[in-house]
Amino acid sequence: GGNKLSKLEFLLGDAVANGADTVITVGGLQSNHARLTAAAAAVLGLACELVLSRAVPIDDLEYERNGNMLLDPLFGARVHIAPAGMDSLASAQARAEELRAQGRRVVVLPTGGSTALGSLGYVSCAQEIAQQERELGVQFSTVAVANGSGGTQAGLVAGFHALGRDPGMVQAYGVLATEPQTLATTHALVGGACELLGLAPPAESAIRVDGSHRGERYGAPTSGMLGAVMAVARSEGWLLDPVYAG
């Protein structure tokens, strides 16, 4: 979940600067974004509430009690489980209105923290990659990323565009929505990030998303993913997560 912190640096920085005292966000039961939002909120002294949904097709008591579901309350977050079929972001907005009526100053973050502002975390990442290239004496031709909610790819595309590089060097693989939906979401985020940077956005063709490796639904394992996780573990000693890197 390390990439979530890049977005939260900007999102929670903005929340604190604008006087927020509470942050609410959404995600699946084992959302890394939700867990890291709770942890960052604890550091910043913000109250945190999480509206979580059963997005992954796993009906198992251990899945619902361990991992991030164990850690979220440890960081002090109040956890709400959204009923099946309910829009978790709409539930979060409704909860925010309840708290505002009590005088609280609330900010609501969408899935993955993927907003134009959050994407600036990955504009910074593009700058870091360029710095690493200079230090290593290499130039990468492709940067491969998973695309769930769009913010990571959008920030990298905007970042390389700002550096005068080919933004099409960012190749994403969709893991959540369909390829057309992912392209549309990412295109909008790229436009928003470029507006914040004072730049004209790149051509839409620069946003490259391959949705052919997505399973039947978010988090559902595929034979290709299982093979990739095993191959990398046995050849490189790396552990890939099954939803994004795998």
TrEMBL record:
The Tryptophan synthase beta chain-like PALP domain, residue ranges: 1-245
Keyword terms, alphabetized: Pyridoxal phosphate
Transmembrane segments: none
Cofactor(s) of this protein: pyridoxal 5'-phosphate
Any Pfam family hit: PALP
Recorded GO MF terms: D-cysteine desulfhydrase activity
InterPro entries hit by this protein: ACCD_DCysDesulf, TrpB-like_PALP, TrpB-like_PALP_sf
Keyword Manganese recorded: no
Gene3D superfamilies: 3.40.50.1100
Family classification: Belongs to the ACC deaminase/D-cysteine desulfhydrase family.
Annotated protein name in UniProt: 1-aminocyclopropane-1-carboxylate deaminase
Species in which this protein is naturally found: Alcaligenes xylosoxydans xylosoxydans (Achromobacter xylosoxidans)
